[in-house]
């Protein structure tokens, strides 16, 4: 496994990290022993960075699954978790809950979670707020390093990096949105900060459309999944590439990238970073931060079907019904309140898209 220095922390992290959002039910419920074995297998294959959060989609039980695995991990590991509370007291409560759930004495990388804008960032720094509470917890030995996850654009990330209050960043970055955030990654690297990239497969969009993304592969034998992970992993600015794991097979496949040769042609990286492609800029990454909708509209599912239109899938109009079990007309329940667009990490025109989908 390739390991990289995480900024100035003195810690070397595996280039592939275990993302704890994708745990899947096996039958009617989750299998704690199987989930633990997934993490143990990742550890045996050299992964030492394990990322979770209190509210990840697997029924908010990801930290519980981590705690089960941590009882008997094969090798040394580092744990990352998060809090999105702006109030310091609430953040402290959530931090203590995370420690109890995972039954560990401290969090190695504690994230000020989901910073959406510079204004949001400033609010986390306010007196009595999230950052102040995290600093206190660090002084008490409950946190090793205060870091942040953000969906800001490159220019905003650059400002955050240059202020130097945090030791590292977790950023959504992949072959689709690289130009959108590259400036921020460059600034973080220049400031000797660790960088973890999440969503390297763009919410599954890349593996679901291998023909459209074949251009990122070095040859016909390489899968688009491996190519997408390598695109992130090979870059000097990036410390860890988070990959969501939902099976032992996915653990083996993803870990193998970090244990293999990161042979990405420089011209491929340059082409992806500099390409001006309206299609890639407009695809929804499926992060689901637009949810929930006050009117109950399943926004992310409608945006997923709209992606298929952009990818020129001739069956895109029927997907919302036969795949998601919804009606296209359901999108018409949107009242154009705009809340979803303020939360969209890609700054997409969601309201216009919902209006279009509603009449398909």
Structure explained in plain terms:
With 360 residues, the chain is of the alpha/beta class. The chain has 2 domains: 3-274, NADP-dependent oxidoreductase domain (TIM Barrel, Alpha-Beta Barrel), CATH 3.20.20; 284-358, no CATH class. Helix content is 42%, strand content 14%. It contains 16 helices and 10 strands. The protein has helices spanning 32-44, 62-70, 88-102, 118-125, 130-139, 154-163, 178-190, 205-208, 224-233, 248-259, 266-274, 278-282, 299-310, 316-322, 339-343, 350-358; strands at residues 3-5, 12-14, 16-19, 49-51, 78-83, 107-115, 143-150, 168-172, 194-198, 240-244. Helix 1 (32-44) crosses helix 2 (62-70) and helix 13 (299-310) runs antiparallel to helix 14. The radius of gyration is 20 Å and the shape is globular. The N and C termini lie far apart (48 Å).
SSE blueprint and pairings:
Blueprint: E1 3-5, E2 12-14, E3 16-19, H1 32-44, E4 49-51, H2 62-70, E5 78-83, H3 88-102, E6 107-115, H4 118-125, H5 130-139, E7 143-150, H6 154-163, E8 168-172, H7 178-190, E9 194-198, H8 205-208, H9 224-233, E10 240-244, H10 248-259, H11 266-274, H12 278-282, H13 299-310, H14 316-322, H15 339-343, H16 350-358
Parallel strand pairs: 3-4, 3-10, 4-5, 5-6, 6-7, 7-8, 8-9, 9-10
Antiparallel strand pairs: 1-2
Helix pairs in contact: 1-2, 1-10, 3-5, 6-7, 9-10, 13-14, 13-16
